[in-house]
Specification:
By secondary structure, the chain is of the alpha+beta class. The protein contains 1 helix and 6 strands, in the order ββαββββ. It has a single domain, classed as Alpha-D-Glucose-1,6-Bisphosphate, Chain A, domain 4 (2-Layer Sandwich), CATH 3.30.530. Helix content is 15%, strand content 46%. Strand 5 and strand 6 form a beta hairpin. The two termini are 20 Å apart.
Length: 92
């Protein structure tokens, strides 16, 4: 996925057209920071994409564009805003 070597590479995706502004690619932490689409649009994408890829969403707050999820041996959190959204993943 996008040149990453760590993380749930076959299960996690970013939407087409996402603008990546930063990233961390380590065995114990993978983070993707995006400036587009908006936090609300990215949260909507992950509400659909995560369960389809084998992740279970355990908390989801549309008012703040935050969610937590787990699956495929990883746990994750999404925190979004209009300007920047980050998805961080760690091994479970």
């Amino acid at each position: 996925m996008l040149g990453f070597v760590n993380g749930p590479l076959d299960a996690f995706s970013v939407p087409v057209g996402a603008v990546l502004t930063d990233r961390v690619d380590q065995p114990n932490a993978v983070t993707v920071v995006m400036s587009a689409p908006s936090g609300a649009e990215l949260a909507g994408y992950y509400r659909r994409a995560l369960p389809a890829a084998g992740f279970a969403i355990s908390a989801d707050d549309p008012a703040t564009n935050t969610m937590t999820f787990a699956g495929n041996g990883w746990t994750g959190v999404l925190t979004g805003s209009d300007g920047t959204t980050a998805v961080a993943l760690r091994p479970a």
